[in-house]
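Researcher: Sequence recovery benchmark, item below. Answer with residues only.
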């Protein structure tokens, strides 16, 4: 009887040991799965992508608005320099039409100048097509390519994100990461990433000393 009890105890211990190992393997498997990125994608960036960033993220400063108003005012005032035979009476509709035409020409020239400036900045940012590999994690992005060392961008370190129909632009203190929608073939993946980044709490900035 003692031998039978010992045999039963040994069998029970072996079963418990196998169960523990199976649970341990399952835990290890879960950890391994958690250590994999949500998705990894490789895509090509071109000057057109950089130009899309310049057009979407460009902000006009108050000084720039003032310069534009002065520019339009100078062109509108140029009608006063024309002879009355050409411009007509100063209060007539011909003079008003001439002022409107000159202001419109000045505005178009300003837009052309802005477009050229954006194109030049895009060329400097992306001189040639660049291939990037992006790994998306729950709390960060890992980027390989672009002629730089592999780097990680934590969501809290993103100062500003700009989402458009075609791109997601992420600004940090060191760089601007351009993510085209075409790099996310899965339905909803592009929107989900933009939402997670937008909902990430940012560290509070220290108040400026008066």
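Model:
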């Amino acid at each position: 009887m003692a031998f039978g009890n010992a045999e039963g105890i040994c069998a029970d211990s072996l079963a418990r040991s196998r169960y523990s190992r199976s649970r341990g393997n399952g835990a290890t498997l879960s950890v391994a799965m958690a250590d994999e990125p949500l998705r990894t994608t490789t895509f090509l960036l071109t000057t057109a992508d950089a130009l899309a960033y310049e057009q979407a993220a460009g902000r006009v400063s108050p000084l720039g608005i003032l310069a534009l108003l002065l520019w339009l005012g100078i062109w509108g005032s140029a009608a006063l320099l024309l002879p009355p035979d050409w411009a007509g009476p100063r209060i007539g509709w011909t003079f008003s039409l001439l002022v409107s035409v000159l202001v419109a020409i000045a505005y178009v020239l300003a837009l052309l100048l802005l477009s050229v400036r954006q194109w030049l900045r895009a060329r400097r940012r992306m001189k040639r097509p660049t291939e990037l590999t992006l790994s998306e994690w729950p709390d960060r992005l890992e980027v390989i390519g672009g002629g730089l060392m592999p780097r990680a961008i934590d969501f809290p370190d993103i100062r500003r994100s700009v989402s458009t129909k075609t791109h997601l632009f992420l600004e940090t203190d060191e760089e601007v990461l351009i993510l085209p929608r075409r790099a996310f073939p899965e339905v909803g993946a592009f929107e989900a990433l933009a939402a997670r980044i937008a909902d990430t709490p940012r560290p509070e900035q220290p108040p400026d000393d008066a």
